[in-house]
Structure formats: structure tokens, C-alpha cells
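Sorry to interrupt, but I need a hand with the structure work. Please put the record directly below this note.
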Amino acid sequence: MSQDTLATRASHSIDVKHSRFLAQAAPVDSPDAALAFFAEVGDPAATHNCWAYRIGSEYRFNDDGEPGGTAGRPILAAIEGQGLDRVAVVVTRWYGGIKLGAGGLVRAYGGAAAECLRTAARQPLVAVCEVHVAYPFEDTGAVHAALAAHDAEKLDERFDAGGGHVHLRLPVDRVDALVDQLRDATRDRARVRIEGDASTQPL
């Protein structure tokens, strides 16, 4: 399972038989963000802007006119080989007049991407889940104290005739401790519902 994303953008360039390859990578949290990054940093005047991204189970790659399988897929393989997630990489090529052949292209695109990612600053990804808590009005203070103690991120909070309702996001490994504290602090009056599958986000 992928454990890291990038802490910030990174780049690396190489020259292969007079062709220049510039790899640029960025952390992204959605396919739209990845495509926006490619549009921002790709060079319309270059010969090719080949790219790939992986975000959880979603991935895409594009050879941008290079022979099939010689550019986008090796870039994706570099992302996966470095154990990264939520990452987008574009490798821009300026043709230098000497053809590299399929093997040469795979090595150039994959190598530029891999070196860019290998030397980039990383940021851990932590598994998180979303939790809903319903509680009586008199337990508002105790509930808020418990949320603060476990670094829960409040996504939404509302009140109705029955009391308070709060929607949270927090690391999976802190959920049990939060539930225990809420149970003790409210004498089991708080009701907790944990949403389905965990996702990951930067720590």
C-alpha cells in the first residue's frame, strides 16, 4: 500500500542523445487537479508532454504522440515504484534530432520521472475516516473537549431539538480512543456512527 505523497512540487531534467527530458511532479488530490497541473506546466512548444497520475485506485497515463507504452506507462511505473500516491508527473521532451527507439524512450521517460520522485521531499499519508456523533445539549462541552484531544477535524456541526450533531474526520487509529472518551465523558449518551471505508490524506 502506498504510504507517501509529495510534500511539494519537484523537477528533474536529463539529456539523452540531444533530446531534453524535463520531469515535473506535484502532489494532487483529484484527477481534475492532476489535469490542471499538466495544463499549467506542460510546454505547448515542446515535442511531447507525456504524463501519468495515481490517486488511490485511480490512475491514468498519456503518451502524447510517442509510440504506445513508451512514455505514459513508464512514468506511472515510476510513481508506483517509488511507493507514492496522490501524485502527478509530466515529462516534457524537446526532440534533439536523434531517434531513441522504443527501449530508449522507456528508459528516458521512466528514468527522468523516477529520479525526479526519488529526490523529492515526501509527506506521509495517513488513513482517515469520517465519524458522525449525536449528543444531548448538556454534553456539548464534553464532546468538544474529546474532539480537541484527538485532533478531530470538524466538517460540519448542527443542532436540533434533540441536541447536537457533529461530522468529523480523523485518523483511523484514533477512532477507538475517541469513542471510548465520548462514551465515558457523556455516560454513554453520545451516539457514534463511523462511515464505510477509510481513505488517505496527507498527515
Notes: The chain has a mean pLDDT of 90. The two ends are 16 Å apart (CA to CA). The helical segments are 31-41, 72-81, 101-118, 140-149, 175-185. The longest strand covers residues 122-135.
